[in-house]
Amino acid sequence: MKRVVSIAASCWLLTAATARPDGGLPLEDDAAEAFLKSARVVKRKPLAVGITRSTQLGLADGARRAHAVWKTIEAPEVNDSWKHEVAAYELDKLVGTGLVPPTVERTIDGTTGSLQLWVEKAATEADRQNRHVAPKDAEAWSRQVCGVRLLHLLTANADARNDLNVIFDPGFRVYAVDFSRAFAPEDALRTGVELARFSRRTLERLRGLDRPTLDAGLQAWLDARQIESLLRRRDLILALADRLVAEKGASAVLY
Question: Is residue 14 part of a domain?
Fold first, then answer.
């Protein structure tokens, strides 16, 4: 059965009290992570969409307020875990794709889960296609979509083909959400995700990944087998990029 909808993708109109007026992320990088780890929970709202029984939280730390998605799913029999959400964000930082909203591990009222900053005024890729909305900058959009596809292949995300899990803000910045069913211990690249162009910077980051780096960055949320498979998929992605460059030329494949 097709997964219903991303837990972070359904909000086109909801805004946070301190969100940027043009939408997007109210905080980024270290500031966002610190806020997510320490802000008080002032409001809870169960999300009526999705299958992971997630909750939207209202957070505040004095002057700042924002929303976040709280996920506690832990279903190893179907490779569905909140831990994968944190691992995807940390991996996104390592490879420099910049697509996953800030996500941290946090314990709230005795329960540990992932807490991901809400993208304000976001729409889904499915929305965009249904409404026939053209991106303002087609090349910038294409590059971001290529980054999403690479991240999905690298993480073996079972929801990679769900356009509800690709969202964008009013400035057409793209975000990849819902990685709870990623990081399966698969050594091959999943089929059905076409990847034909690559960021030079991302490929350089991928080539620099090694087991000690991934262990240090991800072993809090992934086991040894998952990390081993991730490296094997990395090798396949690099081999694909090298093959396409040899066939089509660097200018047609790399940006």
Answer: no
